[in-house]
Amino acid sequence: MVPLSWYLGLSALLFTIGAVGVFIKRNAITIFLCIELMLNAVNLTLVSLSGFFGDVGGQLFVFIVMTVAAAEAAVGLAIIISIFRNRESLNVDEVDSLKL
Amino acid sequence: MANLLLEWVIKTIVILFILVTAVAYVTLMERKVMSWIQMRVGPNRVGPWGLLQPLADGLKMIFKEDIVPTQASRWLYILAPALSLIPALMTFIVIPYGSEVNLFGYRVELHVTRMNVGLLYILALTSVGVYGIVLAGWSSNNKYSLMGGLRSSAQMISYELALGLSIVSVLLYTGSLDLVEIVEKQSGITGWNIFRFPLMIVFVIFYIASLAETNRTPFDLPEADSELVAGYHTEYSSMSFVMFQMAEYLNLITAASISTTLFFGGWNGPFVERLPLLGPVYFTIKVLVLIFIAMWIRYTVPRFRYDQLMRFGWKFLLPASIVNIIITSTVILLLR
Amino acid sequence: MQAEKILFIIFAVVALASALNILLQRSPLYGALSLIGTLLALSALYMTLRAQFIAAVQIVVYAGAIMVLFIFVIMLLNVPKDQPQIEKQKGLRYLAIPFAGLLIAEMFFVLRPIRLNTLPPISSGNAEQAVGTTWSIGTALFTDYLLPFEVTSVLILMAVVGAMVLARREGD
Predict the structure, then answer these.
(1) Is residue C70 within 8 angstroms of chain B, CB to CB?
(2) What is this model's ipTM?
(3) Chain C partners within 8 Å of B130 (Cβ)
(4) C86 vs chain B: nearest CA distance in angstroms?
(5) Best exposed site among A29, A100, B242, B255 by fewest CB in 10 Å?
(6) Running DSSP on this structure, what letter comes out for residue C65?
(7) Are A34 and A18 spatial neighbours (Cβ–Cβ below 8 Å)?
(8) Distance between CA A70 and CA A77 in Å, rounded?
(9) Is C41 on the interface with A (CB under 8 A)?
(10) How far, in Å, CA of B323 to CA of A11, rounded?
(11) d(CA B305, CA B218)
(12) C82 in contact with A at a CB cutoff of 8 Å?
């Protein structure tokens, strides 16, 4: 049987990779992908703990998180499309001021 | 444990072999049906009644040159047909082909695995099948391919909703996502799901949605020959093209198999309790009838324009399937 | 036993390799495809944790819908590849490695007391209603957790309206 700590360790590593990606990448869509990776790492933690404690609430939480991630992805990508139309660039170093 | 693994491997090999042969002969069936509807004789030169035609086609395709366009993304170009073919093949492991059978002294159940989320697994594979098409369109570096790929995949994800929601109506009657259990609950000649009240309408919605999912006419504008050259598989030749064609016909066989499992009782039929080996026979007959109907529709109905197609999917089929869920749940409440 | 550990290691390696690939790729399209690989590996891991419904829903919703949306946007905008960037303080990169090692050591230390805890054995009882099946999630969703469900539906409505308004061209 696989120990629980392996799942938690894997989740921590995935979260870290996502966080590093948010810091070092400059393309807005890649940053968004790394945010989704962080959400998935947390989902893995929730599901593993839910299986370990036999409580279905963890998996339900994951279900809600997935729904929220879908909504957030839709709105976030719509924002990225608007930014791209106005600024012609997706480099976050160049779109960092509210003034056009 | 090793016994189980061996059983899975043998069943998978058998199903794979049957499927590859079936795909080849479904292409022949398509050409024959097309020719009958168009009042001519189909392929009849290569073997008796053209029975060796798929073999000849396959050999011809193998000898063609496999071209990769210069500016295409090489990885994606080679990966896309595989991404299209693999999910199409994977759906067949959860479909029940019969009940239990005694083969050479072993009790063998005629399905490869039995997942308690079998129906969701099939929906998941349908969702993943979109990637092959969209990546093929993109990686060909050809504006016709890109347009065709994006349109095809937009169509597929739109009709996935109607597909999933019409499955919910069947689920309300059966109470389980397990395909083996859905078929077992349809035993008896009038036990088939199609004879229960709202499910006949649901079957029509499901069938239309699955025709749109598999990019068959009348929903095949993105790959119609006169519209967008050949859509997402314009640049493909030889074996990659064969893989796309196989994936398309496998999707058609999958759609027909799921329709029989959900609505027509799967392997049920007369005398199947006494002679369990009749199960796969009945299943095959039902699947062939549904494939024939799909081909009949293809050569009779003109194709939809793309905006008509999207409007039909979003504004008619999706609300219709939601209304059907409400009607089905009302009927179930009244009957109990 | 050993088979489960081997399966875990295979899927964990695939997940980690795909996640690292997101960082290493310069084109966002390959990054999105790597993320799809991670999602599929995670779905397999959910299956090993007896969360069958969540595993299937992960593929249908995440890998089959959200990532398709990402890929459509990437193709629509024709996002160019990242240019290699000028790094202003290279020395900090070498400072990061001992800190990372320290954090990983801390993680092992924290997880040490539970390092032998495994999944509880499958309890006898109705297998149709075990935790992780569709039945368990369905009943919990519509009885104990009804409020989050309703709130989520309002959230989705907001997201649909917001996305349509934001992505509309001027003058449409």
Answers:
(1) no
(2) 0.92
(3) 64, 68
(4) 27
(5) A100
(6) I
(7) yes
(8) 11
(9) no
(10) 41
(11) 9
(12) yes
Q: Measured between alpha carbons, how far is residue C134 from residues A56, B109, B118 in Å?
A: 11, 24, 11
Tell me the three state secondary structure of residue B206: helix
Rounded Cα distance, B131 and C65, in Å: 10
Give the nearest chain C residue to B121 (CA atoms).
C56
Nearest C-alpha neighbor of A8 from the set C106, C119, C111: C111
Q: Collect all residues with Cβ–Cβ distance below 8 Å to C21 and sequence separation of at least 6.
A: C30, C31, C34, C37
Lookup: tokens for B249 = 């016909």
**Both tokens assigned to B88:** 């199409």
Higher pLDDT, C15 or C102: C15
CA distance B253 to B23: 8
Instruction: Report the number of distinct structural domains present in chain B.
Output: 1
Q: CATH for C1-80, among 1.10.8.60, 3.40.50.720, 1.20.120.1200, 3.30.70.260?
A: 1.20.120.1200
**pLDDT tens readout for residues B252-295:** 999 999 999 999 988 888 888 788 788 889 999 999 999 999 99
Q: B100: helix, coil or strand? A: strand
Q: Show the domain range for B256.
A: 67-335
Q: How far apart are CA C166 and CA B204, in angstroms?
A: 37
Q: What is the pTM of this model?
A: 0.90
pLDDT score of B4: 83
pLDDT tens digits, one per residue of C49-85: 889 999 999 999 999 999 999 999 998 888 777 777 7
C-chain residues near A88 (CB < 8 A): none
B to A contact (≥3 Cβ pairs closer than 8 Å)? no
How many beta carbons lie within 10 A of that of residue A70, not counting itself? Answer: 19
What single-letter DSSP state applies at residue B302? P
Q: What tokens were used for B267? A: 């392997």
Q: HSE of A17 in the Cβ direction (CA atoms, 13 Å)? A: 24
Domain boundaries, chain C: 1-80, 128-172
CA distance linking residue B71 with residue B333, whole number of Å = 60
Region C94-107: mean pLDDT is 84
Q: Do the chains contact at C51 and A47, CB–CB below 8 Å?
A: yes
Contact by Cβ (8 Å): B110, B100: yes
Whether residue A62 contacts residue A47, with contact meaning beta carbons closer than 8 Å, is answered with yes
Residues in chain C: 172
B partners (3+ CB pairs within 8 A) are C
**Higher pLDDT pick, C86 / C112:** C112
For the record, the structure tokens of C8 come out as 């875990």
Contact C52 B153 (CB under 8 A): no
Q: What totals of helices (H) and strands (E) does chain A contain, helices first?
A: 3, 0
Domains and CATH numbers, chain A: 26-87 (1.10.287.3510)
Residue at B18 is within a domain: no
